[in-house]
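Email to the structure team, subject: DUF4136 domain-containing protein model.

Hi all, the expression group asked for a predicted structure before they design truncation constructs. Nothing fancy, just the tokens so they can compare against earlier work. One-line instruction: predict DUF4136 domain-containing protein, return tokens.
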Amino acid sequence: MTPSFLKTACVVLSALLLWGCVSQAPQEPRYTSSFISVSEPGFVLAPGDRFAWFAPAEVISDGEHSLGEKTIEHLRERFEQRMTEQGFQMVGSTDSADYWISAVIILGDAVSEQELVQRYDIAPALSNLANYEAGTLVMRLVSPLGRRTQWRGAMELFTDPSLKAEERQRRVDYAVDTFARHLSPK
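Reply from the structure team: attached below.
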């Protein structure tokens, strides 16, 4: 064996040993969530449309889970900010609004599509077989004239109370931004 062959073999063997000893920190699973929305045929928002909250966000809970008022207020303020940034107007009275905003947050037990449709007289339906799992935010835009839902979306976001407050806040912000993005004016 030649000295150059021995040197090359040592380098390769050392590299293999070092490569085998490299460890990686465990990766935290990425937060992913799906968003789904449905609207009445022909529903289109225009810049300048006026929105008002129909009522405070309702929390459907099994009694074991809760959501702080501060989180709900932040959700509302961020949504209003994002809608205003897109050229919409937030008004204080439902009487002067083109659309009413309604929000439902599901904590604890899952709620079926059928139960949600019956409880809130929501149309259009997504699927009679759907379930909204714990941690889902459902928002809808209602026409004041016919009191009929024109658009609604759903996204799971309140999923892990053991997370740090900053991470939970980041997830709420991401979800609210997703809702607002899907409502951009045409």
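Helices lie at 3-21, 69-85, 113-120, 165-181. The two ends are 75 Å apart (CA to CA). Ping us if the truncation boundaries need rechecking.
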